[in-house]
Every structure is written in C-alpha cells, then in structure tokens.
Amino acid sequence: MSELTLTKTRLFEGVWEGVLTYEGVGNYQPQIEVMHLQRPVPDVEVVEKPDDGLWVVRVPVPAAAIADGVQTFVIRDARSGEVLDSFALLSGDVLSYDIRSEISLLREELDLLKRAFRRHCLETM
C-alpha cells in the first residue's frame, strides 16, 4: 500500500486541486507527474504546507487538452510510477450518449407531458 494519499479538493477555473499526504517517516519530498495522452502536463505545482504536514497539488488543464470526447489525466508518483489519482473531462458528442443526458431529456419530456395533462384536465372540467 502506498504511503502517499492524494485527495481531490476541487476543479476550479481550469485548475484541478488536491491535497497530498504522506504516512511514512522522515523528511519526504514528493515528485508528482501528471500525464495526458502519454505526455507530461506542464506547470504542475506541489506546494508544501509544513504546519499541516501536507502538500497542495495544482494541475492546470492545458487549453490544448480541451477537446471533444473523454480527456483523461493521470496523476502519479514519479519515483514509483504508482497512480495516485486521475480525473477526466467530457465534452462534445460523447455526452449525447451519456446516461445523465438521457435522464435530463426524460425529465424535460415528463414536465412537458405533465403540463399538457394538467391543461387537458382544466379544459375538460
């Protein structure tokens, strides 16, 4: 089991943020790398918070990585190669087949039917 734990805190204004903790002993300095399409993502920040015993990890999502389909980013320990976390961006036509989109469409259709049924009931009274 890994001594490193990465927990997502948010994705805000194009920057994925998380908190990295170390369960081992000694003065450890993490080496984090983020990969997208088997290429390293530039400008990844790992900022130490020694008072809290953790690091803040900031991964800027490159504009070039925003495209149709599913774009997956893998965050890993550069020393061991172990995957600590990952996140994905979904956009474009791929979403038209997503179950959440289907549910949203069904809700809209149901609302339309409810309005039509209520109107019909009022008109027949």
Describe the protein.
This protein has one helix spanning about 100-125, and strands spanning about 5-10, 15-20, 30-35, 40, 45-50, 55-60, 70-75, 85-90. The chain has one domain (about 5-90): Rab geranylgeranyltransferase alpha-subunit, insert domain (Immunoglobulin-like), CATH 2.60.40. The protein contains one helix and eight strands. The strands form two sheets. The protein has a four-stranded antiparallel beta sheet, with no helix packed on it. The chain has a four-stranded antiparallel beta sheet with strand order 4-3-7-8, with no helix packed on it. The protein is of the alpha+beta class and about 120 residues long.
Helix and strand layout, with pairings?
Blueprint: E1 4-12, E2 15-22, E3 32-36, E4 39-40, E5 45-49, E6 54-60, E7 69-77, E8 83-91, H1 99-123
Antiparallel strand pairs: 1-2, 2-6, 3-4, 3-7, 5-6, 7-8
Strand order of the largest sheet: 1-2-6-5
CATH level-4 homologous superfamily? Rab geranylgeranyltransferase alpha-subunit, insert domain
Beta strands, count: 8
Give the DSSP E fraction (strand runs of 2 or more residues): 35-45%
CATH topology: Immunoglobulin-like
Q: What's the overall average pLDDT, rounded?
A: 89
Q: How far apart are the first and last residues' alpha carbons, in Å?
A: 69 Å
Low-confidence stretches: none
Biggest β-sheet description: 4 strands, antiparallel
Number of domains: 1
Order of helices and strands: EEEEEEEEH
In the CATH scheme, the class would be Mainly Beta
* Structural class by sheet pairing and helices: alpha+beta
Helix content: 10-25%
Q: Which overall shape is indicated by the principal axes computed on the Cα atoms?
A: elongated
Radius of gyration: 22 Å
Number of helical stretches of at least 4 residues: 1
Query: How does CATH name the architecture?
Result: Sandwich
